[in-house]
Amino acid sequence: CALPIFRNALKLVFVFSLCSILLSLLFYSEDARSTSYARLKLGRVFGSHMVLQRERELKVWGYGQPAAVVNLRLSSPNRGVDHFQTTVGSDGRWEITLPAYPTSTDVTMQLSSLDASIILYDVAFGEVWLCAGQSNMRMPLRQSIGYADDNSSTGPLPRLFDVPLSTSLNPLDDLSTDGQNMSVTDMKWQVATLSAAAQFSSICYQFGRNLSIILDVPVGLVQAASGGTFLEAWANTDIYVCTKHALLPYMNSATDLNPTRSTWRQKNERSVLYNGMLYPLRRVIFGGVLWYQGENNLAHPTRYSCMFPVFLSSLRTLFGNPSLPLLFVEIAPWFVGERHGHLPYLRYAQQFGLSVPAPVAMASALDIYDPHSPYRDIHQRQKQPIANRLLLLALSLVYKRNISLPVGPRFRAVAVFDGHMDIYLTYAAGLRIQCSSPTSDSFIELGIRDTASLSYMRWQPIDAVVVPSNSTNLVPHEAVLRLQHNLTAWSTVGLRYAWQDIPQCLLMNAANIPAHTFVDLFPVGLIEGKEQPLTGTPQMSLLDPPDTVNK
User: Fold this and answer.
1) H or E segment at 9?
2) Distances (CA, A) of 56 to 77, 176, 219, 261, 313
3) Using one digit for the tens of pLDDT, what is the confidence trace for 194-251?
4) How many helices (H) and strands (E) does the chain have?
5) Torsion angle, CA of 525/530/536/537, rounded to 10 degrees?
6) In this predicted structure, what is the pLDDT of residue 471?
7) How far is it, in rounded angstroms, from Cα 211 to Cα 508?
8) How confident is the model at residue 146 (pLDDT cuts 50, 70, 90)?
9) Which whole number is the average pLDDT over 307-312?
10) Which helix (H) or strand (E) holds 446?
11) Would you say residue 456 has pLDDT above 50?
């Protein structure tokens, strides 16, 4: 008698399984995305807990059955309920434009098409920032030092989205896991609890956390970063106007990514990270971009000086915003080994990015050196000062807050006198010279014209002191650095500062921000006693050594 019972049980299991399959086809949730366009789906950057950019018209997009109607219902405490509708195109894609919404929380987004529906909960409208680059941008909060936050501060917690590593030789329409040890359901927005923040970019999180506290608005942070990557992998093909060769020596010219190559090799093919991680975000509206990358391009500062501004401009084109705020980080000190002496040239090459139309700015990191980092000194654990400096730039440039010292001291002008030279600096309130040891070498050098060869210039270290502010007639936040020397105006042709891999002395202001690496040639015909401007505009002729040095 047990056999009929066993057969009946098998029948029940079969019927239950069949019903489960049918139910899964009838209903769709945000975590049940597939690669087929046959049913309603959202782009993978959308999800519960997400933040959408406030006060900007934006788009919601996805996929569905061609010719099907898609309805979107947005329930907001600020505006009540809004309804939107569109039709899926013949290519299986749909898109809905939302009007500008004010700062909002507790928003519900419901989509429906045919017999499928998607509901997203706890959606907010606030500020959305993209944080991209290589390992120092990706370095998680748990590996940082000098930061403590028990989430008890005022202001809403940031919402976090981590773009998975994905490489492609062609631009992807949507985000992909690219064979990583995760599924598409792992791509989701998270509220920045302590455990979630610990795994997220330290710089990005600390920037966003403080921004949310100061503005008292929801902040969404999208992290798209991968360690050990070249700018060529993050950029589209526009940057190849900068070189006769479209590929660096390690790059593959094949039409398919070779799965037998290491992950490092695969993610450093030309444009593969742009195609796989940036291009799929092209329709997202961002309030700004934080960028920290360049260490891998150390050997090619001249090429980087051309590529970097082209890359920054391409980001604005990609995201459809010609005034997208772009904030990037000056490369911090580390022991570079056989490429000794190259770091100041790379930092100088970064400054070519400042030629991009405003708003664009560079956050100084010259004082961030960590020789005892367990992750090697190239991965400095002190991320809080960098995050704070990026925040000051954002508050000043993007949110128009009155920040008296958003940057470090900047060289403005030079004047030659009998026996000394005065350097005038702006953003220099509280100017001081900070040295890592009392025996540190001079950090200021003058370019001296050799009398035996008028075309030759050598750099000579010069002693410098800060002139007390009560002994000068300066506008607020200006200061004077005095160089003692016995050189003539004719023989002195240039100035450079902090031109070392690991600078031992730095010029700091009252905000504890150092001046950037600096080099400039003086105007022709310095007149003794007359103030002459220092433009600081990067010049290709000063980008030495050439790319072929120390290969």
Assistant:
1) helix 2-26
2) 18, 27, 15, 43, 21
3) 999 999 999 999 999 999 999 999 999 999 999 999 999 999 989 888 865 545 555 5
4) 10, 25
5) -50
6) 61
7) 24
8) confident
9) 96
10) strand 444-449
11) yes
Cα gap 210→130, rounded to integer Å: 16
Three-state secondary structure call for residue 207? helix
**Average pLDDT of the chain?**
86
Amino acid at 484: Q
Averaging pLDDT over each range in 259-263, 379-383, 418-422, 434-438, which range is the top one? 379-383
Quote the tokens at residue 400: 């128009």
Q: CA torsion, points 19, 28, 167, 330, in degrees to nearest 10?
A: -140
Specify the pLDDT at position 98. Answer: 97
Residue 17 CB neighbours (<10 A): 10
User: At 132, is the secondary structure helix, strand, or coil?
Assistant: strand
pLDDT at 6: 43
Q: Which residues of 21-34 are buried (b: 16+ CB within 10 A; e: fewer)?
A: eeeeeeebebeebe
d(CA 531, CA 526): 9
Does residue 142 sit in helix, strand or coil? helix
505 forms beta bridges with 435
Side-chain-side CA neighbours of 379 within 13 Å: the count stands at 18
CA distance 98 to 84: 8
- Model-level pTM? 0.89
Nearest CA-CA partner of 494 in 528, 526, 529: 526
CB-based burial of residue 150 (10 Å sphere; 0-12 exposed, 13-18 middle, 19+ buried)? exposed
As a whole number, mean pLDDT of residues 138-147 equals: 92
Question: DSSP for 354-403?
Answer: GGSPSSEEEE--TT---TT-TT-TTS-S--HHHHHHHHHHHHHHTS----
